[in-house]
Amino acid sequence: MTSSQGFVCRVCSARASTFLSFGPMPLANGFLSAADFHGEFRFELSVGFCPACCMVQLGEQPRRDQMFGPNYPYYSSTSSSMSEHFARFAATILDELPTSERSLIVELGSNDGIMLRHLTRPGVTAVGIDPSTSVAQRARDQGLNIVVSFFDADVAARIAEEYGSADVIVGANVMCHIADPHEVLRGVRRLLKPGAVFVFEDPYLGDVVHRVSYDQIYDEHVFLFAATSIANLARLHDMELVDVAPQSVHGGSMRFTLARLGERQVSDRVGLLLQQERVGGLCNFETFEELRRSIEKSRDDLRALLGGLRAKGKRIVGYGATSKSTTVTNYCGITPDLVEYLSDTTPAKQGKFSPGAHIPVRPYREFVTRYPDYALLFAWNHATEILTKETEFRKSGGRWIVYVPSVALLADL
Ligand code: DWN
Ligand code: ZN
Questions:
Q1: pTM assigned to the model
Q2: How many C-beta atoms surround the C-beta of residue 194 within 10 A?
Q3: Tens digit of pLDDT for each residue in 382-402?
Q4: Which atom of ligand 1 is nearest to the CA of 176?
Q5: What's the 110 CA to ligand 2 centre distance in angstroms?
Q6: Whose CA is closest to 67, among 111, 28, 12?
């Protein structure tokens, strides 16, 4: 794609330049029945970079109620390592609270309660907000306090009225999903107590660039954040980035802490990361042109590998019907003749077909009952957990195919 194509930056209204167009794409979590193939929703997936505020973002995002409807099928608690991660994250949030009084924590995008259940403690009111009734109900079933809604300044005002101001607002894998970050920050400012912080983590742009993990680009991820772009966004709301903490989850994430301007000491880690991003070219368009070339090579290599194996009659199964796999299967032209089915532990996805590519999604027991020759690791961000669990597959002669950071067969473990 040429850099002359562009759009208006959602953060600063400057002209953002498109660096990659994927073509028409379905919703990443739009798992569907065969009866619904005809008329399946698609939109033009493209990604661009704003040279003024350094925000990497989609050219177009479907409406939020199309993506996060009542049947949203991603349940955060499907991974045990993520459950452990959120228990640790919650512990750091609880450390933020004043010891003597009753405290309020608000979690944006609380999903099935994977973190909120660790925040709900005596002396603490923990309120989760999530727009999808499917996952919100799972959280409510555990007795958690959930507001089923998108978060905006009005919702913030309602929560403040009912519970008072928040000691901490927290969010994991939610900020990068919201097309209007200004509305969120207005709400956050409205709801936070003086001196309190907003802590959120999302996939980190630096990791996407270094690992060529282009499958983090799909409808739901309207932004790929860096410290530079978050610092610029915060400044527009008289807030500042006061801390950063890299996280290994989801293929490399960053935890950002924002506070009102001047209310908190800024950690040295912020300046160091901003400098690292400058030196590493995260604010240069050339970095993203280079990324586009690496993505195109990854696509060609994966197609060639899968095609070659199928020509030899090998069976290939996808492991994890991830949102990320929707980008890979559609961009690389992976259809059921290349990948027989996607194995997934989520009941809401099983028996359906993958968005766009229409690969069947089958229960995990099918994978263990008749191992394929090759498993394409779509849930590569959970590799440690999965490879530990799947030693029998390797022992039976099965091989893992990975595509992050490059297309390869995993060496013997
Ligand atoms: O930001 C987002 C992240 C946090 O979660 C959302 N936009 C949607 C979602 O993205 P994803 O679908 O790419 O996430 P995961 O966590 O990589 O998805 C893993 C999938 O694999 C789930 O459907 C569960 C499945 N799974 C499995 O079948 N066996 C997962 C594990 C660990 C397993 O052992
Ligand atoms: Zn901008």
A1: 0.97
A2: 8
A3: 999 999 999 999 999 999 999
A4: 1
A5: 28
A6: 28
